[in-house]
C-alpha cells in the first residue's frame, strides 16, 4: 500500500490531501495560507490531514508540492536582484522579447564571445571583462544569468562563464542552454534571467517546507509540480524554478482529471 501526500499553496488556503494507491482519497484538510512564510501554512495543513486520517507520518511514501509562488512573483515583479551576462550579442538585442524591461535596472554585461549556427567560435570569450564585472557585482546581486549566442549549438562559453561565476562569487548561475533548447538567444536570455530571479524564493520555500515535513515525522522525498503537471524533484526545482510557473493551475487540472476519470 502506497500513501501519497499532496500539498497546494494557494493565495488564501493551503490544501493537503492523502491518497492511497492512487485510487482512494483518504482525507483532505485546509489551513490558511501564511503569506509571510508559506511553509507555516504547509505544516498546518499537513498536520491537520494527518490528524484527520490517523495515518502515521512514516507511512507516507512521497510528498508533492504545488505552488503559485513563481507565477505570482513574476506577475508582481518580485524576485531577487540579479545580473545578466549576455555573450556575443549587441545592445539592440536587449530590446527583443522585453529583455531590457525585464532587467528593471539590474546589472548587465554585453560580453565579447559567442558561436555561430554551426557551433564554431565567432570570438574568444573576454574573461578579463567578465572577471571585472563579477568582482564589481558579486556582493550586490543574489545570482547570475548567462546567455550565449547559439549556446544551444555549443555551450562552451556559457559553461566557462558559469564556472567563473561559481569561483569568484559563489552565487547561483542560470545558464540558458540548460533551460531551453531554442535558438532564439533573447528568449533564452529572458528565461535564464527570470529563473535566476526566482531561485532564492523557491529555494527558501522548498527548504522550509521540507523542514516542516521532517518536524512532523515525514521523511518521504518531496516532489514539486511543474507547469505541465509532471513532477520534478525538489533539487531540480531549486535549480530550475522557472519550470514551476503555473504549477498551481496545472495541479488543479491534474486533480480534476483524476477525480472525474476523464
Q: Can you describe this structure?
A:
- With 262 residues, the chain is of the alpha/beta class.
- It folds into two domains: 3-74 and 202-260, Nucleotidyltransferase, domain 5 (2-Layer Sandwich), CATH 3.30.420.40; 82-198, 3-Layer(aba) Sandwich (Rossmann fold).
- It contains eight helices and ten strands.
- The chain is elongated.
- The model has no long low-confidence stretch (mean pLDDT 92).
Brief digest:
By secondary structure, the protein is of the alpha/beta class.
Descriptive keywords:
six-stranded mixed β-sheet, 2 domains, Nucleotidyltransferase, domain 5, elongated, 39% helix, alpha/beta, four-stranded parallel β-sheet, 262 residues, 8 helices, single chain, Rossmann fold
Main sheet: strand order: 3-2-1-4-9-10
Number of helices: 8
Helix-and-strand structural type:
alpha/beta
| Strand residue content | 15-25%
As for the number of domains, it is 2
CATH architecture of the largest domain: 2-Layer Sandwich
Share of helix, binned: 25-40%
Q: Tally of extended strands?
A: 10
Specify the CATH class of the largest domain: Alpha Beta
SSE topology string = EEEHEHEHEHEHEHEEHH
Can you tell me the CATH topology of the largest domain? Answer: Nucleotidyltransferase, domain 5
Distance between the termini: 24 Å
